Target: Nuclease SbcCD subunit D
Amino acid sequence: MKILHTADWHIGKKLHKHDLFADFDLFIDWLCKIIQEEKIELLLISGDVFDLANPSSDARKQYYQALIKLQKLNCKIIATGGNHDSPAMLDAPKEILRELDITIIGGLPEKLEETIIPIFNAEQKAELVIAAIPFLRGADLRSANEGITYEDRIEAIRNGIQHTFKKAAEICQHQFPEVPAIAMGHLFAAGIETSESERDIQIGNQAAFNASQFGDFFKYVALGHIHKPQRVSAEIPVFYSGSPIPLSFSERKDDKRILILDTATSWEPKSVTVPHFRKLLKISGDLNDIEFKLKTVEDHDHLDYLIEVDLIEEQYDAQKIYALDTLVNGFKKPGYEIVKQRAQFKNKLKGTAELYTESQQLEDLKPTDVFSELVTAHDYDEATKNEIWSAFNEILEEIHQSENPAE
Model:
């Protein structure tokens, strides 16, 4: 049997207020071609189908459109909920989707047996069994009385995860003896690499689960939650497929992948690179560097490339912040969009309170005294200083008139 493992679709994701709907549509079109070319019989989606627990109507529409495209390929689909997903929202249409050979496990059901899904061959004989374990929330893993200290609660969560997978393995063995089994999971495994777009599982990284606790029963564990594709150290093949598209600028250099297993030959997956539908660019340097790099970006015919601009200067200078704003607002290169900008100064300007000795109190100083100290901290020429003081005096006069209208 040929199986495709993917996860962390995050439908509805916005990257600095820029939606990624077009990226996901292109991924699904590409995925459909891969399923046809590779003759995939089973598609596993290991959690975080949506980016938000209450996705927008557009995100829900895109989700159902994707399922319709995939269902037409004569490929069984099993999807589990992740920490971003609402179990109730995912589970709501599961009866209808089951008629289309699509199984959704949004949250952990009361009976763990409901997560055990046999896959039958043409002779209606169980060829494979899937333990489709969704993201396990604290309420799924421990009772209210269990664990008094923080460390006790964390340990209870780890033990609960281990117990859930161990019990799932026992059910598989009992109901389908001699049939190979695969587990799906959505969790944080110890010792893996993360990116800034992941939200830590449970109560931070301290709830990381040691993958050796999966045991040796399952032939393969298809994980979601971590966006960088990677193997986890364990007795059996345990893999994160990663997210299919970059979800943060920290992922801009990642090779996005899907994983394909051919159970007739091996339980080790083949990695297939997902095309780059759009690039994320980080442009950094001083003002001259940024201006030059923005002017020399090359033409392309892909989705708009998104740019994060990071100004790095030695000395604090308000004029350079203004110049950066002007440069960004005036950037109109077709095929590119600046979605974030920030300024960093190596020699950080002291805060207002730090400009005075301990014996001086800010409330005892006049506004002109405070402003004079701030201006002196900059290396302005005389002409610039005069312009700044002129603007300051004008603002100060307006404030004075608004506070004393009768004068």
Observations:
- The first helix runs from residue 21 to 38.
- Confidence is low (pLDDT under 50) at residues 200-206.
